[in-house]
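anyone seen this seq b4? input:
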Amino acid sequence: MQHRNVHDVMTQEVVTARPDTPFKEVVALFHRNDITAVPVVDDQDRPIGMVSEADLIRKEAVLPDPEGRTPGRRLPPADRARAEAETAGGLMTRPAIAARPGWSVPEAARQMDRHKVKRLPVVDEAGRLVGIVSRRDLLQVFLRNDAAIREEIAHDVFGQILWTSPEDVRVTVHDGVVTVTGRLQRRSLIPIAEQLCRAVDGVVAVHQALDWAEDDTEVDLEHPRAYQNGS
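predicted toks r here
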C-alpha cells in the first residue's frame, strides 16, 4: 500500500514575508499571488509566524465608522497592538505551527484541526522552509478515482496482506465509499480488513458484510489457558 504524504501535496514555491515587510506590501503579496496567507521567515528561512487575511482585516475592524455613528471594535491590548502594527512581524500569529515533508496526510490534517489553522508551513530537519500545505492540498487524496481505490484494496489489502482469494471477497467502490462482501478465513480478520480499507487514500467510508469460516474470537471458558496459548 502506498500513501501520499505532505511532500506529495504541498506547494514548494512559497511566497514569504520578512518581519520588517510593511503592511501594504503584505497586502500586495496576497493580491499579486492570489493567496490568503504568508509565512514570515527569519534570515535563515525559518518560519517564525504566519500572516493571514484575518490578521490584516483586524486593522479595519478597529476603525470607527466613517460617519462617526459606531466606534471601532474593542480588542484586548495584545490584539489591539497587532491591529495597529505596521509590519509583518507585528501582525503575524506566532509561533508558526509547522509540518514535516514525510508526514502522512491524516497527520497533517490532525495538526491543522488541533491548532485550528488552515495551512502549515513545511520545514526540513533544520527548520528551514521547504513548502506550504493547505486544507485544499490535503483534500486532493479524495480526487482519486474509484477504480484505483478498488484495485488497491482488492490487490494490496486482500491479496497481499490478508492472503484472501479473489473468489472469496468482492469489493465495490462508488464515490469513494467502499463496500466489501464475502468470506474471510477467520473472524478476527474482519476489523483488521476494515481498518486497512479505511487507510487507503481516497476512501470516504467503508461498509462491510463479511462472513467468516472460523470464529477464532470465542474463548473456551472451560480451558481458557489452552486458548491463550493457542492450543
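The two ends are 33 Å apart (CA to CA). Residues 226-231 have pLDDT under 50 and may be disordered. kinda curious what u guys think
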